[in-house]
């Protein structure tokens, strides 16, 4: 992936997975190692960025709840500008680009400017976190439906979450740590039992991974008392109930 002055470059929207570099796809690893320009999110693990060759340009566009290094419109413009200058761009995102990764917006901006786009899927943080914690999102005895929702979104209080969690269902909440109190209150107001099992998975697949459990009504106290920080996912449903000791020890051993 070298700079080309006579043609338009390609923007590769690449999923970096939940954090562990061993969980990258082969295509993602090849693109990262060959890239001359990587535009990356803050959730991409440093060990993955270290795979880039020494001459590569790395541009961080990290976002947090209270601070954005670069607004989304500016990121879109950056990708288009670099590609139109003849550069291939690896746009590296935690998880999967099209699951709460704003990959759809970036792909639209590139296509509107006539820039070719390629999408390389990654293991979604929901799937990676659940697997690392050995929390099965589906289970013949407990859940045949899975829903993914964003815990930070406009109009959260006005949304109807009734039916997203409950008997036979699993609810996975992204970006819900800062709004955990509102989430718990809303789910209970929409009919979910206060004692519904909850698992909070912090730093999934990375050093320092934690799996914490509580009933739904105790979620805000758990988040505050354990000082849970992002990246973390909230899993709600019967599958989030405490596993036996053997499974719990295996899950913890996997991240040592």
List the SSEs and their pairings.
Elements: E1 11-15, H1 26-34, E2 37-40, H2 46-49, E3 57-60, H3 72-84, E4 89-93, H4 103-112, E5 117-120, H5 125-133, E6 143-150, E7 168-174, H6 180-189, E8 197-202, E9 210-215, H7 219-225, E10 232-236, H8 245-253
Parallel strand pairs: 1-4, 1-5, 2-3, 2-4, 6-7
Antiparallel strand pairs: 7-10, 8-9, 8-10
Helix pairs in contact: 3-4
Main features:
single chain; 256 residues; alpha/beta; Cobalt-precorrin-4 Transmethylase, domain 1; Methyltransferase, Cobalt-precorrin-4 Transmethylase, Domain 2; 2 domains; 5-stranded parallel sheet; 5-stranded mixed sheet; 8 helices; 21% strand; elongated; disordered C terminus; transferase; S-adenosyl-L-methionine; porphyrin biosynthesis
What report would you give on this structure?
With 256 residues, the chain is an alpha/beta fold. The protein folds into two domains: 11-120, Cobalt-precorrin-4 Transmethylase, domain 1 (3-Layer(aba) Sandwich); 125-253, Tetrapyrrole methylase, C-terminal domain (Methyltransferase, Cobalt-precorrin-4 Transmethylase, Domain 2, 2-Layer Sandwich), CATH 3.30.950. The protein has eight helices and ten strands. It has helices at residues 26-34, 46-49, 72-84, 103-112, 125-133, 180-189, 219-225, 245-253, and strands at 11-15, 37-40, 57-60, 89-93, 117-120, 143-150, 168-174, 197-202, 210-215, 232-236. It has a five-stranded parallel β-sheet with strand order 3-2-4-1-5, sandwiched between helices. Strand 8 (197-202) and strand 9 form a beta hairpin. The two termini are 36 Å apart. The relative contact order is 0.15. The model is unreliable at 245-256 (pLDDT under 50).
């Amino acid at each position: 992936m070298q700079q080309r002055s006579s043609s338009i470059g390609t923007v590769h929207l690449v999923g970096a997975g939940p954090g562990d570099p061993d969980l990258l796809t082969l295509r993602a690893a090849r693109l990262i190692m060959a890239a001359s320009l990587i535009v990356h999110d803050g959730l991409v693990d440093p060990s993955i960025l270290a795979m880039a060759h020494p001459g590569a340009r790395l541009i961080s566009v990290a976002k947090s709840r209270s601070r954005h290094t670069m607004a989304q419109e500016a990121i879109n413009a950056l990708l288009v500008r670099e590609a139109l200058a003849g550069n291939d761009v690896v746009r590296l995102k935690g998880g999967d680009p099209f699951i709460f990764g704003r990959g759809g917006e970036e792909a639209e901006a590139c296509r509107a400017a006539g820039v070719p786009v390629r999408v390389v899927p990654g293991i979604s943080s929901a799937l990676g976190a659940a697997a690392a914690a050995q929390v099965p999102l589906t289970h013949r005895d407990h859940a045949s439906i899975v829903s993914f929702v964003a815990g930070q979104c406009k109009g959260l209080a006005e949304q109807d979450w009734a039916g997203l969690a409950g008997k036979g269902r699993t609810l996975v909440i992204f970006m819900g740590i800062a709004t955990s109190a509102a989430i718990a209150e809303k789910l209970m107001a929409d009919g979910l039992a206060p004692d519904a099992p909850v698992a909070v998975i912090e730093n999934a697949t990375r050093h320092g991974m934690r799996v914490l459990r509580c009933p739904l009504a105790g979620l805000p106290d758990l988040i505050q008392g354990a000082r849970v920080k992002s990246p973390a996912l909230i899993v709600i449903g019967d599958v989030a109930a405490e596993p036996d000791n053997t499974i719990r020890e295996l899950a913890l051993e996997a991240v040592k």
